[in-house]
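The material for today's practical consists of a large collection of protein records. Backbone structure tokens are a discrete shorthand for how the chain folds in space. An example says more than a description, so a record of this kind follows:
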Amino acid sequence: MNSTQFRFQDMAIWQRGAEVSGPLFELADTLEQRRLYRFAEQLRGATLSITNNIAEGSGSVSRDDFAHFLNMARRSLFEVASMLLLFVRQGHLDERRIVGLVAELEEQSRMLVAFRRSLKS
């Protein structure tokens, strides 16, 4: 990577989202291999939306605008969690593959809420 550094790259909330995106993309690949293309596409899009909204918000000129993007990131995180849980219920994924991911998403949600609150104070 080059020496350019964006503000979001130093943020723990962005870093955690980037770390979990790898296993989520792997799950999307699994869905694609099962010919569940639309599910795979939706999972990838929502996963990207988490880190993209954090990054986009970090470029905001106001705290309120940044807080709005953090809320959008959290909503995307909930979308990912919902998809994972439904994919298990429908038999598309094994529950053992998502337990740790869902726990990580839950922790990231708490981090986003805490960071958003810090912007409001």
